[in-house]
């Protein structure tokens, strides 16, 4: 059976479906047998989801427009080259 | 500009439609791309107005500084204009614009004086001699919002903590988890090995998890995973 340290090294690939079937099985088995790693992985998955969610807020959505002075500066920047 | 110069020939339209079909580029985008390739001033202004918000939001996310983002904004549009012929329509135009923006941000970060960054070593998982996980309880910060973060406060906390990560980890996390690039694409953008991306991503997520534990109560944190 994998140690926790070995499992930790595989965790990102395990969650990302990037492991060969036998390694995936070894990881699955480790999670079934190890409460600490199962708990860690649950929080790790929440962390990934929170990261994605943090930039999906309406406040972070791409705004409708940018300030006019920025547009003018970009136009002037091109003409100056 | 004369009317004749305004008219796009049938073969040009066919070419643009081919791009549109291949990449689901909209008709408006196809016209814009044609205009940029013709080096028209009006095309440049449309580009800045239409894609300015996307470029600004991306630059703010990667650079963490509004001044740097504003400088990067101008350089990005020059870069888009100068490299428009390299756009082959294999990905949606806005993805390509975002990629050019990210490249400009990375160039800005390389030029910028390195800021003092917090080490993440103490935030990574620890193991004993037999490879068994050692659980280290992280101290919860007593804050006014600690126990009762609403959705927006929680997003803010997560964004602030992502910003605390050293650039080498933060950039991989943004590319992979936020902007959805593959491991191989992230490696290519950053000019590092695929395995380095994997290692940095895992360390970035682990450190972020550790930081979030100080303000977020996992038991009451409901989020779709």
Radius of gyration of chain B: 22 Å
Q: How many domain units of chain A? A: 1
Q: In sequence order, what are the helices and strands of chain B, one letter per element?
A: HHHHHHEEHHHH
Judging from the principal axes of the Cα atoms, what is the shape of chain A? Answer: elongated
Order of helices and strands of chain A: HHHH
DSSP strand (E) fraction of chain A?
under 5%
Which helices and strands appear, and what pairs or packs with what?
The complex is a heterodimer of chains A (81) and B (225).
Chain A: H1 4-15, H2 21-33, H3 35-54, H4 68-79
Chain B: H1 3-6, H2 10-23, H3 27-37, H4 41-63, H5 66-82, H6 93-111, E1 126-127, E2 133-134, H7 151-164, H8 167-178, H9 183-190, H10 194-212
Antiparallel strand pairs in B: 1-2
Helix pairs in contact in B: 2-3, 3-4, 4-5, 4-6, 5-6, 8-10, 9-10
Describe the structure.
By secondary structure, chain A is mostly helical. Chain A has one domain (4-79). Helices cover 70% and strands 0% of the residues of chain A. Chain A is built from four helices and no strands. Chain A has helices at 4-15, 21-33, 35-54, 68-79. Chain A is elongated, with a radius of gyration of 23 Å. The mean pLDDT of chain A is 88. Chain B contains ten helices and two strands; from the N terminus they run ααααααββαααα. In chain B, strand 1 (126-127) and strand 2 form a beta hairpin. In chain B, helix 4 (41-63) crosses helix 5 (66-82), helix 5 (66-82) crosses helix 6 (93-111) and helix 8 packs across helix 10 (194-212). Chain B is elongated and about 65 Å long. Mean pLDDT of chain B is 83; it is low at 1-22 and 142-146. At the A-B interface, helix 1, helix 3 and helix 4 of A face helix 4, helix 5, helix 7, helix 8 and helix 10 of B.
């Amino acid at each position: 059976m994998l140690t926790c340290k070995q499992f930790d090294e595989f965790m990102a690939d395990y969650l990302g479906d990037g492991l060969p079937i036998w390694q995936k099985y070894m990881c699955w088995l480790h999670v079934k047998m190890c409460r600490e790693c199962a708990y860690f992985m649950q929080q790790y998955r929440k962390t990934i989801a929170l990261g994605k969610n943090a930039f999906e807020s309406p406040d972070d959505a791409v705004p409708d427009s940018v300030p006019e002075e920025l547009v003018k500066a970009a136009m002037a920047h091109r003409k100056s080259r | 500009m004369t009317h004749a110069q305004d008219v796009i020939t049938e073969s040009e339209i066919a070419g643009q439609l081919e791009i549109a079909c291949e990449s689901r580029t909209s008709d408006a985008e196809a016209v814009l791309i044609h205009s940029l390739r013709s080096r028209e001033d009006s095309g440049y202004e449309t580009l800045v107005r239409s894609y300015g918000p996307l470029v600004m939001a991306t630059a703010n996310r990667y650079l963490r500084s509004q001044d740097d983002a504003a400088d990067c904004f101008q350089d990005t549009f020059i870069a888009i204009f100068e490299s428009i012929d390299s756009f082959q329509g294999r990905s949606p135009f806005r993805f390509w614009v975002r990629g050019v923006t990210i490249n400009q941000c990375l160039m800005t970060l390389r030029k910028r004086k390195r800021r003092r960054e917090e080490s993440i070593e103490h935030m990574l998982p620890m193991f004993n001699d037999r490879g068994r996980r050692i659980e280290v309880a992280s101290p919860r910060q007593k804050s006014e919002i600690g126990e009762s973060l609403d959705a927006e406060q929680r997003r803010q906390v997560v964004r602030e903590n992502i910003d605390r990560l050293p650039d080498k980890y933060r950039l991989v996390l943004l590319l992979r988890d936020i902007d959805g690039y593959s491991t191989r694409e992230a490696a290519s953008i950053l000019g590092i090995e695929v395995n380095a991306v994997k290692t940095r991503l895992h360390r970035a997520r682990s450190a972020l998890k550790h930081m979030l534990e100080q303000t977020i109560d996992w038991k009451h944190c409901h989020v779709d995973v």
